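Example record for the data management plan.
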Amino acid sequence: MTMPFRRFVVLAAIASVFACSLANAKKSEAIPPWNQWIEPDFPFFSAAVDAREKGVGNNLTPRALVFPLGDNHFLAYDLDLLRVAVAWKAKGVPFVNASMSVNSYPYQLKKVGGGQKALPKPNGEILFQNGIYPGVGSGSPNFTDSRPPPPTETEVGRGGIHPQQARFLGIDIQSGGEIEYIVANTRIRESFGLKKDGLTRRLKVDAHKKPLYLVLAKEDADHPKFICRGKGSIESRKGHIVCLLPASSKQEKISLVLPLTGNPTKPSEPSAKRWEKEIRLPLTEKTEGGPLNFEPIPLPLDNPYKRGIRAAGIDFFKDGRVALVTFDGDVWMGEGLRLGSEEVKWSRFASGLHEPLGLRLREEEIFVFDRNGLWRLHDRDSNGEADYHELYCSQIDQTAETREFASALEVMKDGSFLVCKPGQTGSTIGRSSGAILRISTDGRKVTRLAQGFRQPYLGYDPVTDQIAASDQQGHFVPSTPVDFVKKGAFYGHPNEPADKDRLVSPPLTWIPHQECGSGAAIIWMRESKMGPLADQPILLSFNPPRLFQIHAEINEFVTQGGVTPLPLALDDPLLKGAINPADGLLYLTGFNIWGTKAKGKTFLGRVRPNPKHAWTTPTHAQVAKRGIFLRFATPLNLESASKAESYEVRRWNYKRTPNYGSPNYKLDET
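Corresponding structural encoding:
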C-alpha cells in the first residue's frame, strides 16, 4: 500500500522568549498574594530579599531562606554568605512587592518587570541586619567578601563562598527547619525561633580546635542588644556585633537571644507525615485520531493544601512513578501511569523551593535545580516525603535579576549535571549568565561548557553524550535556533565585553519565527515505544504549542540539520518532557507564561503513537549534493512524489544584530 505524497516544508530551527509572566485566570484581589502563597506550618520558603533601602548599604540577598517565626516576625538567611541577612516584624504582609512565583499565584497574569526594581522588600520594622560579607568564620572576624569580583560593582549574586571557608549543607525538615552548615571543618546545626524571651538563634556546634565567630548584626546608634547563653561572648568588632566561640573539645549548645516583646507561637509537633491526604484522579486512554494522540493526565489542581500546581518539570522512576516539580516550589509524586491503569494517585513530597524549573533523577534520587542552586531531596525515613533538603551545589552564581531563571537540568551518563543560565536580563548579569554549565558528579566543581545564549533550554542524549540547546529570538538572536553544543563554543548573544570579538558558532538549524516562536526542551526518544520517533531528538515548542523532529547531520566536515513539525494538535504550554520506562511513551508538561497561543494554564499529558494510522511525516531529512534527501516510514505514491509541483521551496537569510529578531533577507540583502 502506498500513501499519497503531500507537500511539506522542512523547517530550520527555534525561537522567542521565556520572558516574564504567568497566564491569566481568576483574580483574587481580596487576599494579598503573599498570604495566599506562604504555606501555614511549613518551616520556611525561598525568595530574593532586598533590604537595600533600610540603612545597611547594599544588603541584597538573591538566595534567601525566609523563616516565618510567628507573630508576624520573619528572618531571611543568606545561603551564599551563610549570614542572617535581615530580621523584621512585618506590617500586614511580610514584603513590599512579590516575586515572580508569588505575584502570579496561582495563575494570575501579574508579571514582574525585569531587573531589580520590583524585588521583595521587608515590610515593617527592621530588628537587625547585616551587610554583604560572610556571617560565619574561623579565627579573627573578617567583614570582607572573599568571592571573585562581580561583573559590576553593585552585583552581589556571585554564588557561595569558597567551600574551604564555609559551606551550607542542607535543611532538616523533620526537625522543624534546622539548617546545617560547615565552618572550617566544624559542623553547626542552627534553628531560629520566637521564644518567650525574644528572637532566638539556637546552635549546636561540634568540637572545634580553632575559635569560631558569628556576625550577629551591623552596629549603629540603635543597635540591638544580644545575649549569649552558653560558651561564647558578645563583642563589638569593627562596627559589627559578633559572637566569639572559643575552641572546644566537645559539642557546645549556644543560644543567641535578641530580647523583644512578642507572642511566641508554639511550634507544631513533627508528625510521621506532613501531607497525609492523597488525591486520586481517573485516567482515560485515547486511541482514535491521527498518527499521534495526546492523552491528558489530571493534575491535583484541587488539593487540600491550597497549593498552585504550575508544572515545571518531570522525570520517572524505573517503576513508572513520576516526580513533578512546580514553579510554586513543590514536588509531587504520581503513581499509576502505566498501561491498563484507571487512575493516577498524587501525593505531596516536598516544598520550599525557589522558583524551580528543572527536575531529574539520578540513580532513583531526586535532584531539583532552582534559583538557590542544585538540591538533592532525601526521604530518610521512607515515609514518602522529603525530610532533608541537601544543597548539592551552591557554586553557581545567581543574581536577584527577576529573569535569571533556573531554566533546565539534565543528568549526564557519568553522573555529572548540566544546567543553563539565561543571558537576557533587565539589569546586571552574573559570571555564568548566558551559559551552559557542568556540575561535577560530587557537586563540588562547576565549569562553563559553552556560552552566548539568551534564554536557553537543554537537551541531552545519554547514548552519544550530545548536548543540545534551544534559544529564544530577541537581541542578537534573529530567529529560533537549535544548537548541538560544542565545548568552548560561543553562540552569539553577548553577555560580557569580550564576547563582541568571539567567533560565533552557527546553529544546527534556524526555525522561522512564525513556525516556532519560542523553543523549549529537547528530548531524545531513547528506549521509547514512540514508533518512527524512537531514538530521535524532539524539540518542544512553547509558542505555538507543537512538536518538531530534529534531523541532524554531523560529521568531521559539517554540522547542520533541519526540523519537521509533527502531526499532533496541542493547546497546552509545552516546557519539559520525559520518557516513562513503564510504558515507553513521551510525557509532556508545562505551565502558561507570557507569549504563547496555548490556552491551557498548566498540564501533564502523554503522547501515544497510533499504529493504525499512516505516518506521512518524513523520518529522515539530509542535504545531499543534488538536493534534499528525504525518507518516509511508508512508501510514497510514485506519481505524485515525482511531480515538481508537489514541492515548495523558499530561501532567505537572517542577520544577527543588536536589534530584536531579524527580517527575512534576500541574497542581495534587501
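Summary line stored alongside the record: The longest strand covers residues 83-96.
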